[in-house]
């Protein structure tokens, strides 16, 4: 179903009046491609400090059995996933970072989530489950950070099964396997409801889950990140540097969503109509581009939570 949707969408885009020439980017995603260190993150320094302490505490606190869990909540595009990846490697050096990929075709979605969580130790070089009940294997492999996001709707429909999965990780996983659960939403009300169903306060207390809440990225941080990324793209593609006015316009329109802002900048700089002379787009054109990206994102990269 999803592959057919993708084919249809790509066909419609190719037949439309909007044509883009995008450079081939290697890596997991457009946001992480341009982030090499902590200074590159478009997240407030106090929030990065809080997350760094949380990650370090989770993986250095003495535990006899079970893996730690961190819960990150906040709006989409607030830098949660990228911050976890960068800070984990910054704190511990060699770290295996693995993310849940929802194939969504021909598989039981809940089963795929369970396989991902319960096989986490395999990514680190050994089985997550010990042969004896209630005992954890001695974990000598590098630290593993599992990022679980983009949860399908079936999780909220049957939350008790997911709660039991978290309990199993907390009591049986390797002690150096950190599970990071990321819940994202476009509105505060939706995010609050999602969190109360999937990871309620009682469960957080029971499993000692550390919780951190992210805010939309401040416009000043968005402009700073776009300026740096614009310089990179300009050098790679031989384009003119984007003007401060253009960057500020994108930052004002993205509503704190850094992913959306980077996508818009990338689109504008690489479009065949990219000769906009570093001026801001007319509101009607800019709104159309923003609407297009939001539609494409919802179809290709559906982020339920």
From TrEMBL:
<dbReference type="Pfam" id="PF03215">
    <property type="entry name" value="Rad17"/>
</dbReference>
<keyword id="KW-0227">DNA damage</keyword>
<comment type="similarity">
    <text>Belongs to the rad17/RAD24 family.</text>
</comment>
<protein>
    <submittedName>
        <fullName>Cell cycle checkpoint protein rad17</fullName>
    </submittedName>
</protein>
<dbReference type="InterPro" id="IPR027417">
    <property type="entry name" value="P-loop_NTPase"/>
</dbReference>
<dbReference type="GO" id="GO:0006281">
    <property type="term" value="P:DNA repair"/>
</dbReference>
<keyword id="KW-0067">ATP-binding</keyword>
<keyword id="KW-0539">Nucleus</keyword>
<dbReference type="GO" id="GO:0005524">
    <property type="term" value="F:ATP binding"/>
</dbReference>
<keyword id="KW-0131">Cell cycle</keyword>
<dbReference type="GO" id="GO:0005634">
    <property type="term" value="C:nucleus"/>
</dbReference>
<dbReference type="GO" id="GO:0003682">
    <property type="term" value="F:chromatin binding"/>
</dbReference>
<dbReference type="GO" id="GO:0003689">
    <property type="term" value="F:DNA clamp loader activity"/>
</dbReference>
<dbReference type="GO" id="GO:0000077">
    <property type="term" value="P:DNA damage checkpoint signaling"/>
</dbReference>
<dbReference type="GO" id="GO:0033314">
    <property type="term" value="P:mitotic DNA replication checkpoint signaling"/>
</dbReference>
<keyword id="KW-0547">Nucleotide-binding</keyword>
<dbReference type="InterPro" id="IPR004582">
    <property type="entry name" value="Checkpoint_prot_Rad17_Rad24"/>
</dbReference>
